[in-house]
Amino acid sequence: MNRRDFIKLAGMAGMTVVSPIALTRSARAQEMNYPGPYYVMVNAIGGWDTTYLCDPKGVNNINQAYGQGEIGSIASSPITYAPVGNNQYFFEKYASELLVLNGVDMATTSHAAGERYAWTGSLENPEYPTFAALAAAAHAPTLPLSYLSYGGHDATGALLPLTRVSNVSHLRGLADPDHKEGHASKPYHAPRAAEMIRQAVDARHAARQNASHLPTEQTARSALFTARMGARELRRVREHLPTDLPRDNEMKAQALVALAAFKAGLSVSVNLVLNGFDSHAQNDSEQLPKLQLVLDAVDYLLEEAERMGLRDQIVVVMASDFGRTPTYNPDQGKDHWAIGSIMALGNGIRGNRVIGATDEEQRPFNVNPTTLALEYEGVRLRPEHIHRALRRHAGIADSPVAQRFALKEEDLDIFS
Asked: Which is a Pfam family this sequence falls into (predicted)?
């Protein structure tokens, strides 16, 4: 891995608004052990068909796979599910933890706007950061991998750098740039020489930083030093990476890399993504296997988090651009539909609940702003409500970074 690739992949503090100059080395060392919570955003890119997931409909030919009498239900739970794929296993396993939000009005059928609205809570402003970026910026903005992303909408609002990792070999190289491709058996320098180089870099940085008085020059030097310091800390990630990642599901592999970064204390949040949900033709054959991949990946993430001792600190949010129409087009596809669903579970989220609903034509019901029960005169559930509640749940609603990006809708007590 050459120096340019390293800096590109690291995405270190050179772009951050919260300059690493403000952190002493001891403060930075403390931040390098971030203990959680960790935020996992699961993005089904293209617009998922919620009638094959958590908002089942067995009437009016809305789907061609099951009837009304076949809809899955769970004892002592309001959660229902489409009886397809691995839904029964997933929903029965996680019902007690799962919060389902149905009838969410995305207010658009544009992919770009829908993704932005789903993950930032702002439909109009493309400059707004995602919730994952806000959480990372509020909790630990200078971590080397504070905000990891595999794609999708991942705007940062210029609050902190974004680290994109396309595959595990990149992360291994990033974790140990002193070794070829991150392999311990292929060092560029002998151990003693490597240590002398590190000491010289530290001493040179300290001398030049003290001699520099221009803010822009200080920022540039501090950013470079932060990148180098972060590279050393990233070796801890390698300890938690398996030799081989799952090959049957790319989202599982993404989840494992994220968990390794969480376990190393170097990351706060991650975007996991799966493409291919824009099913304008052959809706069922496109949607059903991909929905199964998403649920399998979330199950795998939580099982691995349990094994690594992280389960109690994980928060998972699952969403998409919007939903699919309640009718099939001539190509047996379904087109864009502004009403969708969001699911969440994990640290501090009160599960075994469904908020919101749609009618037999997939049109949303309003909810009472206090009780969240269905109510004709209530409010339309929108991503702003969900993101305001997410910010409060994460304890960042009153933070300076969140206050810079205000959301206009009223507060709904969604997660607790």
From this structure: DUF1501
The sign of the torsion formed by the CA atoms of 342, 110, 275, 150 equals negative
Higher pLDDT, 221 or 259: 259
Cα separation, 405 vs 170, whole angstroms: 33
CB 42 within 8 A of CB 258: no
H helices within 121-234, ranges in order?
A: 131-139, 168-175, 191-211, 215-233
Q: Are 322 and 336 in contact (CB under 8 A)?
A: yes
8-32 pLDDT, tens digit each: 433 332 223 333 333 444 445 445 6
CA distance 338 to 323: 6
Average pLDDT score over residue span 98-105 = 99
CATH code linked to domain 39-165+241-403: 3.40.720.10
| Dihedral, CA of residue 77, residue 352, residue 251 and residue 159, to nearest 10 | 160
Q: For the chain, what are the domain ranges?
A: 1-31+177-233, 39-165+241-403
Q: What is the DSSP letter of 130?
A: P
pLDDT computed for residue 168 by the predictor = 56
Which residue matches tokens 């938690």?
240
Lowest pLDDT segment from 173-187, 261-275, 367-381? 173-187
pLDDT at 228 > cutoff 70? no
Is 107 within 8 Å of 338 (Cβ atoms)? yes
The structure tokens listed for 382 are: 């929108």
DSSP string, 323-388: EE-SS--TTB---EESEEEEEEEETT---SEEE--B-TTSPBPPB-TTT--B-TTSB---HHHHHH
Q: For 69-83, what is the mean pLDDT? A: 98
Taking the C-alpha atoms of residue 9 and residue 198, their distance in angstroms, rounded to an integer, is: 21
Decide: 142 and 28 in contact? Cβ < 8 Å.
yes
In this predicted structure, what is the pLDDT of residue 194? 75
Alpha-carbon span 354 to 238, nearest angstrom: 39
Dig out the tokens for 254 from the structure: 């993404």
User: Are the CB atoms for 54 and 94 separated by under 8 Å?
Assistant: no
pLDDT value at residue 235 = 72
